[in-house]
Amino acid sequence: MAFNHLPAGVHDALAPLSVTPVTHSVPMAKNHRSDRSSTDTAPSPSPGEVLDRLASGPSRASRITHTEHVPPRAGRHAVWPDRIRAEIIAAVQRAGIEHPWAHQARVAEHALDGESVVVATGTASGKSLAYLVPVLSRLLDGSEAPNGRGATTLYLAPTKALAADQCRSVKELSHPLGNAIRPAVYDGDTPVEEREWIRQYANYVLTNPDMLHLGILPSHPRWSSFLRALKYVVIDECHTYRGVFGSHVAQVLRRLRRLCARYGAEPVFLLASATAAEPSVAAGRLTGVRVTEVADDASPRGELVFALWEPPLTEFQGEKGAPVRRTATAETADLLTDLTVQGIRSVAFVRSRRGAELISVIAQERLAEVDRSLARRVAAYRGGYLPEERRALERALHSGELLGLAATTALELGVDISGLDAVLIAGYPGTRASLWQQAGRAGRSGQGALAVLVARDDPLDTFLVHHPEALFDQPVESTVLDPDNPYVLAPHLCAAAAELPLTEEDFALFGPACEELLPQLEAAQLLRRRSKAWHWTRRERAADLADIRGQGGRPVQVVEAATGRLLGTVDAGAAHTTVHEGAVHLHQGRTYLVRELDLDDSVALVEQAEPPYSTVARDTTSISVLETDTEIPWGDGRLCYGSVEVTNQVVSFLRRRLITGEVLGESKLDLPPRTLRTRAVWWTVTEDQLDAARINPEILGGALHAAEHASIGMLPLFATCDRWDIGGVSVPLHPDTLLPTVFVYDGHPGGAGFAERAFHTAASWLDATRQAIAACECDAGCPSCIQSPKCGNGNDPLHKRGAVRLLTELLRGAPGEDGAT
Questions:
Q1: Cα–Cα dist 470/393, whole Å
Q2: Virtual torsion, Cα 96, 98, 100, 101, nearest 10 deg
Q3: What pLDDT shows up at residue 792?
């Protein structure tokens, strides 16, 4: 029997550790005026005072396992390059910025020199202004051209919210310049009647990689005047373009460069990230051009108090009688309630859409008991909302109408929410880069800030709140991507051929794998070679072949059955686990039950209800080895890396009581299986090793299963992923290896780099796994060590002590300090 743990989906990638100082990833203060309401006349309490109030309740103080203090820092000013137009400098000064920080001036200098540059300084260090000033100056020059179009700029953001926020900033800054700067957002929410005007007249177009891939590049003849004049491409929050998503975006950018060259343009790339290691290397890999790095942060920094918070154990028992901690969701809701009552402007970052909705609902109910008007000042913000709902929430947050917001990572990136005092992080977000990015949302007007990481009942979270050095003494992860991944490159070659026929001259642009893939695309009748060029000959849109965010197809529409009203959407890849029949679906504080999931029409019908539980899907997984790329001995056992095929099927769902997480029951489901070809790392052990570890056949399955769960939980410490992005299978006798085997695989077609990183850090990764299991205070295993929240077998069987002995024996044979390295 195989024991498994399946990912929910994957958009991150492998990231080896870096030696970049952690000072580049801590929150920094912007060099602009605070946008706090004029009514906020009372001095704000210090971050330490706010934390003391949060910890003043019964047993609250004991929940803080560590407090990190990041001291304030003075800034270093410079002067703008003399080539910047005086009108731009005057506009900046009117916005309250007399002088730039030194790093802003350096970025502007590189941009004016025609050099691609990445600015990798802290959150709220003024990166936007660093690229905006040279860009607006160049656009102002171009506005005096005879045809009136002059130079153009393309801005790329990973989220619609960030693009909309940046458009507001550009309009405010350029307003005194009249009609010379014409910014416009061009994305899926842009009304059809506005799109033609944008193509013809806008000179600063803000969009996202999805729209560039699906809308702009395939329609490049209609964008010819814009592309011909393209001088700058701004890529904001560039560290988010990692793994498979980043690899897709890298190929989209190569297609953009190819079309620009066709129209006689060679744009300069300006990239920005608050949390990037080796930024010039990552930016060069993303864009395919040489990129200069500016990483010396000269902005001032307010005081940051960063607390690690572990919820207490409850009197409830989980699966197999394991002790259960209070959920991070309930704990964060309490903290958000307390902060709101104190008038502290806060954002709670939550990993899931459902979690964001739950925290919002719980906080609203508790605030209503204190003051009904306060309940209206807390809301949820997540992907899947309709455009008008997102914009209304963004306006309310900007105005201060909202005091508290429970948000997914849709609000993590760059959106200027100045004036926040505190950030709550419900569960480790998967990487140190994301942790600092979220923490940096507070204190963006220069004041001190509080950040609190609330641990989930999870091996990695438990490890981190008791080993703060793993967070605060380590650099952020490197951004790694693989544009040559054939699963990524092939559809983009088709899209490129549809835009302009491919020739051998394009091989250098698209990479060495291009020449090898073209004959395969010909054989599949996707491309046809005529003379010296490859052409797309099908009627379908070639761009539709590449699903750049790995969402698995057409989004599922969530529709209220009684009214036919569209509530929102769910990614196709997540539909089986989140909107199956009987699932609890939350939207804007209202609870719905899924009545029917129609996979053919991609529709989930829901009806409003108030069940006293949440739902969690269960699944089963089998795995087969397709090819072993690398294999090394670990004593008598083997450590391997290669290609696998994973077959998964959602078979049931659990109903868990709200707040406590107590399991109320399980219901069967009948959903079709899904297959995935991906990359995996796996290890085997022999009979002799089992004897040495005192593992008999009765406990073998439980020992392997426990080691698999814990290793999945610990891998995010070594690769830029989270446990939902990777999957695992453990088998007492696998048919391909003929030995007891544990697999950990990437949850994305073709792989995302996580398994490869695991292979190269296997000794450190598995040793940390062994330590995490051994150090846990429970007797037989719990969610803090070996139980998985998504185990398809209901966490049965598991054997904690057997897993420790098994990993100890396996590690005895690890070659050298770094195992596979």
A1: 35
A2: -90
A3: 66
